[in-house]
Amino acid sequence: PADAVPRRRSAMCRGLSLLLATVALLAATARAEEEVKIEVLHLPESCSPKSKKGDLLNAHYDGFLASNGSKFYCSRTQNDGHPKWFVLGVGQVIKGLDIAMMNMCPGEKRKVIIPPSLAYGQQGYAQGKIPPNATLIFEIELYAVNQGPRSVEAFHRIDKDSDKKLSELEISQYLKEEFARDGKKRHPSVHDEILADIFKKNDHDGDGFISAKEYNVYQHDEL
């Protein structure tokens, strides 16, 4: 019939539209599965400063497997029970925690669900007793938000001799000042561990200094 071709084209268009709708739905579902789900358990009346990328955070957190609720990590049983110190947003913790702890204030508590793609993925983490493709749950309590060794202002403060590179002595002194500012007692090993971790992750050429380029994860023009 004369209208057979238009009918076939119409059917093809409907089929293509259905296919595109299905693809869009699958993509939306995949994105939803890859999101970090955050539940605020406690929010203090005073919420300042809020955490941002580059801040030095002090927090306790417990980790559980979503599949069976078993606990695989507890910061209170590590390092003599001292809260963990780490720089937010630079890969010192799994990506899901970097996301989950953004815009958090001192004293806040959160429960977060992290999908495998933002945790340990298909490989898992045998040493930490985390199986492949594991969804993780963390209960987090944030104690302190300090300006970490990632901001332009901090770089200039640390760089006492203004030579555009940071020595181990300069960063060590900076950490001591930050620790003294919040007044919490810590084992000396905490300072040494953070200092070693900063150089391990940032002194890419191994020359014993962190240059402005190595330090400057935000690509600021000021440096």
TrEMBL record:
UniProt keywords, alphabetically: Calcium, Endoplasmic reticulum, Glycoprotein, Isomerase, Metal-binding, Repeat, Rotamase, Signal
Alphabetical list of Gene3D superfamilies matching this protein: 3.10.50.40, EF-hand (1.10.238.10)
GO cellular-component term (any): endoplasmic reticulum
Ranges for domain EF-hand: 146-181, 190-223
GO molecular function (one): peptidyl-prolyl cis-trans isomerase activity
InterPro entries: EF-hand-dom_pair (IPR011992), EF_Hand_1_Ca_BS (IPR018247), EF_hand_dom (IPR002048), PPIase_dom_sf (IPR046357), PPIase_FKBP (IPR052273), PPIase_FKBP_dom (IPR001179)
Hydrolase found in the keyword field: no
Top EC category: isomerase
Signal peptide start-end: 1-32
The protein's name: peptidylprolyl isomerase
